[in-house]
Amino acid sequence: xxxxxxxxxxxxxxxxxxxxxxxxxxxxxxxxxxxxxxxxxxxxxxxxxxxxxxxxxxxxxxxxxxxxxxxxxxxxxxxxxxxxxxxxxxxxxxxxxxxxxxxxxxxxxxxxxxxxxxxxxxxxxxxxxxxxxxxxxxxxxxxxxxxxxxxxxxxxxxxxxxxxxxxxxxxxxxxxxxxxxxxxxxxxxxxxxxxxxxxxxxxxxxxxxxxxxxxxxxxxxxxxxxxxxxxxxxxxxxxxxxxxxxxxxxxxxxxxxxxxx
Length: 261
Fold this sequence. Notes:
Layout: E1 3-6, E2 9-16, E3 24-28, H1 39-46, E4 50-54, H2 71-84, E5 90-95, H3 97-108, E6 112-118, H4 139-148, H5 152-157, H6 159-172, H7 176-183, E7 201-206, H8 214-223, E8 227-232, H9 239-242, H10 244-260
Parallel strand pairs: 3-4, 3-5, 5-6, 6-7, 7-8
Antiparallel strand pairs: 1-2, 2-4
Helix pairs in contact: 1-10, 2-3, 4-6
């Protein structure tokens, strides 16, 4: 897996697809999560798109320097990877913290062609980190956290994915100290004025999200000039897992339409 030096911090990423004419899609992970968070999207989009999954600083195989981390650090990590991959612009897909990074990148750079914001807060105050914050060395805490991020119906129906996620989180997720360093990037986060973000944006939520109120996501979409809101009513925060097939089709269609635009 390749890595890039971003201001002295090694940032790892995974990539697939070499067709220079294919749209580039970059996935930005949630608070504390390793790259496992995009396991259900990576393979589905890697054929028709050039796909990059970033290990957020502090998680996975990326370095975990002492915090706190600023939003500018995370946007800089994204820019360093785009440069390393010779990608001028990309469709940014972020969940939670990663969605906030995508919003900040769209405000601060000219790198974004479109945004897909999954369970993303419109401000730091709208984000509840508690469901995302177990000790990754405590398997029972990881399981409780994971099931809180999925609907009860999904957990009863699909036990194997829950156990796989718990295993991945124990291997890849940030330590409590690194997670707190990441969380600091949301202190004072505010992407206003939203009317200046004229690129295509899709805001995606599960109806039972415990991390960000879906009503805040709907308001975010309404305030964006080219924003649209997509709700999966019975899903929780990990809509990427619960509704992966439908979401992947939605992502591909949106990327294709945004690229044509």
